[in-house]
Amino acid sequence: MRKDYDFAKSKKNPYVKALKKQLTIRLDGQTIDYFRELAGKTGMPYQSLMNLYLRDCAEHHRKLNMKWGP
Predict the structure, then answer these.
(1) Tens of pLDDT along 46-57?
(2) Which of 10, 12, 62, 70 could form a cystine bridge with 57, CB 3.0-4.6 A?
(3) What is the C-alpha separation between 69 and 35, in angstroms, rounded?
(4) DSSP class of 70
């Protein structure tokens, strides 16, 4: 490894906006189990599947339809 590096001609990372951010989130066991099972069928990591699902919801402006009570 060199002692000195010249970064005078370096460029900013053009993909910096696409980088993922770490987040701590609490999910119930059934949700995690669902995505892990789906991951086993697709061969994709379950966290990636969750990210794709949430991204799809955000891109399509999906709204959650919840009913409280009877």
Answers:
(1) 999 999 999 999
(2) 62
(3) 28
(4) -
- How far apart are the C-alpha atoms of 27 and 36, rounded to whole Å? 13
Q: What would the two tokens of residue 59 be?
A: 């891109």
d(CA 34, CA 41): 11
CB 4 within 8 A of CB 15: no
Q: What is the DSSP string of 1-69?
A: --S----TT----TTGGG----------HHHHHHHHHHHHHHTS-HHHHHHHHHHHHHHTT--------
* Amino acid occupying residue 28: D
Q: What is the pTM of this model?
A: 0.67
Q: Which residue has the tokens 């789906």?
A: 38
